[in-house]
Amino acid sequence: MKVGIFVYFIPIGKSGGVQRYSEQLISALGKYSNIEVVVFCAPQNKEIFLPYAADKVSIIVLPKRCKYLRVLTNNRYLRQSPFFSALTKKIFYNRYSARIMDWLGDYKHMIEKKVDVIHFPYQVLDRYDFSIPTLITLHDLQQKYFPEFFTKDEIKERDTYFKKSAELCTRVIVSFEHVKKDIVNFYGISPKKIDVCSLGYDIGPSMDTAKFPEILKKYNIPEEYLFYSALTWKHKNHINLIRALKLLHNKYNKKIHLICTGAKSDFYPTIKSEIEKLGLEEYIIFTDFLPEEEFLVLLKKARLVVVPTLYEAGSYPLMEAMVYNVPVICSNVTSLPEQIGDERFIFDPHNIAQMADKMYQMITGETLRAENIENSKQQIKKLEWRNRIIDFIGSYGQSLEDFKIKKIII
């Protein structure tokens, strides 16, 4: 079986956990499976995925032309209309136009020539006309729980394409049982079509922390700091974290800095305004997206990692802290308590006083810090990819069986 992972439209540093999910999955498939993997990336993001090339993992860099052709093949009106979809297929996918479409950058043809199954490691199918089994990873239905974080158009678009993609793909992969239940309840998708393939994590190569002073100087960071890595989306809850930091300074007289990494979204000006309102400009640094080497060194050297998100279908920053033996606390939402595995290290993300108190305990309590690290060591054993990747392989195999049955029925 040859499996394709389509990452062409994942921009560097702007996709949050989706990028990390894709990288980790590709790496794990190469290390712990016997299947052949073909990664379809773009010229603009190939630097992320080329390092994962191995004996069983090949990287194909699709041409830039693909993104222009996508304007037609991915047109929302064509995708939503059975009539226009059929008409487009007849015009552009016949024996006369095949070579032209290949030249134009038709990734459908390119993919179908190379693999038996194609997996989109994000919420939607980029196109609905594949002649091989397709899978998506539907990470969450956050808009159902926090509609206030989206515009009406964004909610409509998410529901339209998430639901349509879940209906038309061969199988749906999710990371946690609660996401599966949401898809069944909100979209009416059969639970038999949804596979829970849990997140995994493997520690990378040994880290060179000798560059730590150089990195601190580069970003003007002090030696002691709290650390949070997330794009500045509303649900990542930077606002309450900043307010908790202010309380930590005032109530506990612990004047520690906060370092936030990750790309800045349209919500960042609101966060910046809150920082200025609370007079914390001197103590909070947003570095934007960092190279992985710098990111991991800053993570490793942090006094404490805090994950205050309001909604999360699994957190890579949490797992990374656990893997690298950094004290970490997180909010008590969705799957995070299950990931961290000890209620002493969770807090209500809406309760600023509780968050500040938990931060103070973890910064100053050496015994608690040691117990936190030991807890992480035990939890991370369950998260090793060698124990998780079999579920993905099973889902790929099942998609082939489902596709065969569907073709027989049709």
From TrEMBL:
Gene3D superfamilies: Glycogen Phosphorylase B. The keyword Transferase applies. This is Glycosyl transferase family 1 domain-containing protein. InterPro entries: Glyco_trans_1, Glyco_trans_4-like_N. It comes from the Bacteria. Keywords: Transferase. Residues 213-378 form the Glycosyl transferase family domain. Pfam families: Glyco_transf_4, Glycos_transf_1.
